Amino acid sequence: MLQVLKRTMPYAFSMALVVTTVLLLIPSYAVPKAFDFYDKAQHALVFMSLTVVGLMAFPTFESRVYWPYVYGGVMEVLQSLLTKTRHGDVVDWVADIIGIVLGLCVYWVLIKFRKNAFNKIATE
How far apart are CA 72 and CA 76, in angstroms? Predict the structure, then answer.
């Protein structure tokens, strides 16, 4: 099971990255209204998810912790440059960063849980 998860995580991450990029760059009128109300929370949730999946997909990639920060900033710039109905927003990037930090925390908890589970099984 663990091997299947290891093999599929890069694909899951790639799909999540494509979906996130599309959602961040589509015209704002095409975004469902529920997204408008919870915009900052959704930025945080999306980047938390991307961070966790990215860390799981590429556990040995040296700069894996830094790429989400850069990606979030680049997406805000691209929203300003490539779309007419969206604009880059520093507050959105801050929400992205909060999500990234939460994602790092979630990943850390998952790693600790996994190590504890393996240690418990090994000692039984």
Answer: 6
> Which residues 6+ apart lie within 8 Å of 84 measured at CB?
27
- Residue that has been written with the tokens 């190590």 in this structure: 115
Closest by CA to 79, choosing from 32, 71, 40, is: 71
Residue range 65-99, pLDDT digits in tens: 788 899 999 999 998 898 888 788 898 899 999 99
C-alpha 48/C-alpha 66 separation (Å) is 13
Q: What percent of the chain has pLDDT over 70?
A: 78
What are phi and psi for residue 32, nearest 5 degrees?
-55, 145
Task: Please list the helix, strand and coil fractions of the chain in percent, rounded to the nearest 5, in that order.
Answer: 80, 0, 20
Beta-carbon neighbour count of residue 77 at 10 Å? 11
- Does this model's pTM top 0.85? no
Identify the DSSP state of 31.
Answer: S
CA pair distance 57, 67, nearest whole angstrom = 13
Q: Most confidently modeled of 2-6, 49-53, 62-66? A: 49-53
